[in-house]
């Protein structure tokens, strides 16, 4: 069977044994200031999610297979889906069983282009600041972070709450929202992959960095 892109979660992310991760953003801003301490910031492009992944020690065969999958991405030519290992599920639903198979979608968008409400949730379902979500729109994907803690009402609808970053053009009401294992579409940053060092049967020190590709 031919390799397909972007790599799905079972084809890559679920195979990783991650021992450490730095999940952050890369801002694309221009700053200027004056001698009296005033600072002006212009956002030249939306911020992008980044990740620095360190893999646990593993047997050489496992390490070779992960490295081969990364090389098959042809640098940054092909994409993969990766979740924040600290945010695979909402903080108030550690294994996703409370949400189950509920079909969650956008109920409404805030006027500030940085907030929304959701529908289709179980009654009293809680979203906590720092939770992540994934939204597919057309052939693109938004990866968002919850900025306020809210709970769904008896109808399964949340109040409007802030998200980060701003919503991209193309996000509309009624689009589906993934809260369980939300993934960011990304590429491996060129030159960042270290396949690790083999010593006896074990490979140590395997790392790579990713950056969001919308």
How many domains? The number is 2
The stretches of 5 or more residues where confidence is low (pLDDT under 50) are none
Structural class: mainly beta
- Provide the residue-averaged pLDDT: 94
Spatial sequence of strands, sheet with the most strands? 1-2-15-12-4
Shape: globular
| Main β-sheet description | 5 strands, antiparallel
Task: Report the sheet-strand fraction.
Answer: 35-45%
Secondary-structure element series: EEEHEEEEEEEEEEEE
Remind me, CATH topology of the largest domain? Phosphorylase Kinase, domain 1
| CATH class term of the largest domain | Alpha Beta
Distance between the termini: 26 Å
CATH architecture of the largest domain: 2-Layer Sandwich
Your description of this structure?
- This protein is mostly beta strands and 214 residues long.
- The chain folds into two domains: 1-83 and 185-214, Phosphorylase Kinase, domain 1 (2-Layer Sandwich); 86-182, Elongation Factor Tu (Ef-tu), domain 3 (Beta Barrel), CATH 2.40.30.
- Helices cover 6% and strands 40% of the residues.
- It contains one helix and 15 strands.
- The chain has one helix at 60-71; strands spanning 18-33, 39-55, 58-59, 80-82, 105-109, 115-119, 126-127, 132-137, 140-146, 150-151, 161-164, 184-188, 197-199, 202-204, 207-212.
- Strands 1-2-15-12-4 form a five-stranded antiparallel sheet, with no helix packed on it.
- A hairpin with a 5-residue loop joins strand 1 and strand 2 (39-55).
């Amino acid at each position: 069977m031919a390799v397909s892109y972007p790599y799905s979660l079972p084809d890559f992310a679920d195979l990783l044994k991650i021992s450490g991760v730095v999940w952050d953003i890369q801002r694309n801003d221009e700053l200027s200031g004056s001698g009296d301490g005033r600072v002006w910031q212009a956002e030249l492009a939306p911020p992008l999610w980044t990740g620095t992944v360190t893999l646990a020690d593993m047997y050489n065969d496992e390490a070779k297979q992960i490295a081969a999958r990364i090389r098959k991405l042809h640098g940054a030519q092909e994409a993969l889906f990766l979740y924040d290992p600290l945010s695979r599920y909402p903080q108030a639903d550690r294994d996703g069983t409370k949400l189950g198979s509920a079909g969650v979608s956008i109920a409404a968008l805030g006027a500030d282009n940085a907030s929304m409400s959701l529908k289709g949730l179980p009654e009293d379902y809680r979203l906590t600041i720092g939770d992540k979500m994934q939204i597919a729109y057309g052939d693109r994907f938004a990866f968002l972070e919850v900025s306020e803690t809210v709970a769904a009402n008896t109808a399964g609808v949340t109040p409007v709450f802030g998200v980060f970053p701003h919503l991209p053009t193309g996000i509309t009401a009624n689009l589906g929202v993934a809260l369980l294992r939300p993934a960011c579409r990304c590429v491996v940053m060129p030159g960042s992959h270290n396949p690790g060092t083999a010593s006896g049967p074990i490979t140590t020190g395997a790392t790579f960095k990713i950056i969001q590709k919308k």
